[in-house]
């Protein structure tokens, strides 16, 4: 977890803010599911007064990626100068165009912020950014192959091929599963290669 040396003041202020915050209002309509959901503006509005009253603010940054995904990092800041990063949320893009990226980015910002501050709106519009086919393919064999990759280079090649296949199928759940499998194996291989280099 990335944070300032101390977050005592921030933690106290956030606790007070969370006690004053209410749930985000579900005021946006989703015609696909014929239901309502709390959009990004509603989440921001739900925390605005409580954050301001307790010297809190937030920053969301977008990180670059070589994959068809959006990566959003949310940081909570305190007037004392203390800060905490709430981690990076990576979300596959279901459609490789401006609309697809825009939808995924808005979705990622909303859920990253909601998770960071403790607001719990209902997820009724997730299909706009990460809709998966009802009969999604089983990607377990691909995940097993990724887990068996002997080198980082082999891992990247296997992942690229499998990820492109998932993209062709518009299977965002598959893309997410493959990304998770790749990242886990990558961590193992990086530790192994680092150990071998250090022992030479």
Structure description:
This protein has 200 residues and is an alpha+beta fold. The protein has two domains: 1-131, no CATH class; 132-200. 52% of the residues lie in helices and 17% in strands. It is built from seven helices and five strands; from the N terminus they run H-E-E-H-E-E-E-H-H-H-H-H. The protein has a three-stranded antiparallel β-sheet with strand order 3-4-5. It is elongated, with a radius of gyration of 20 Å. It starts with 7 loop residues before the first helix and ends with a helix. The relative contact order is 0.13. Mean pLDDT is 78; it is low at 28-37 and 122-135.
Estimated structural class:
alpha+beta
**Biggest sheet layout:** 3 strands, antiparallel
What is the helix/strand order?
Answer: HEEHEEEHHHHH
Proportion of residues in β-strands = 15-25%
Tell how many strands the DSSP assignment holds.
5
Largest sheet strand order? 3-4-5
Low-confidence runs (pLDDT<50, min 5 residues)? 28-37, 122-135
**Overall pLDDT:** 78
Radius of gyration: 20 Å
Name the overall outline.
Answer: elongated
List the total number of helices: 7
Q: How many separate domains make up the residues?
A: 2
Through-space gap between termini: 31 Å
Helix content class: 40-55%
Can you summarize this structure?
This protein is an alpha+beta fold and 200 residues long. The chain is 52% helix and 17% strand.
List descriptors:
200 residues, alpha+beta, 3-stranded antiparallel sheet, two-stranded antiparallel ribbon, 7 helices
């Amino acid at each position: 977890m990335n944070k300032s040396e101390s977050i005592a003041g921030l933690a106290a202020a956030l606790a007070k803010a969370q006690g004053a915050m209410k749930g985000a209002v579900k005021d946006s309509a989703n015609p696909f599911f014929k239901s309502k959901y709390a959009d990004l503006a509603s989440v921001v509005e739900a925390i605005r007064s409580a954050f301001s009253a307790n010297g809190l603010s937030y920053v969301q940054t977008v990180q670059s990626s070589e994959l068809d995904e959006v990566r959003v990092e949310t940081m909570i800041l305190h007037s004392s100068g203390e800060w905490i990063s709430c981690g990076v949320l990576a979300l596959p893009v279901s459609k490789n165009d401006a609309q697809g990226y825009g939808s995924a980015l808005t979705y990622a910002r909303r859920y990253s912020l909601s998770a960071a501050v403790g607001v719990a709106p209902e997820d009724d519009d997730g299909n706009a950014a990460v809709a998966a086919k009802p009969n999604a393919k089983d990607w377990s064999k691909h995940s097993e192959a990724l887990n068996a990759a002997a080198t980082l280079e082999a891992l990247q090649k296997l992942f690229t091929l499998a990820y492109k296949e998932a993209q062709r199928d518009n299977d965002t759940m598959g893309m997410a599963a493959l990304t998770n499998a790749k990242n886990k194996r990558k961590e193992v291989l990086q530790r192994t290669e680092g150990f071998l280099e250090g022992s030479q």
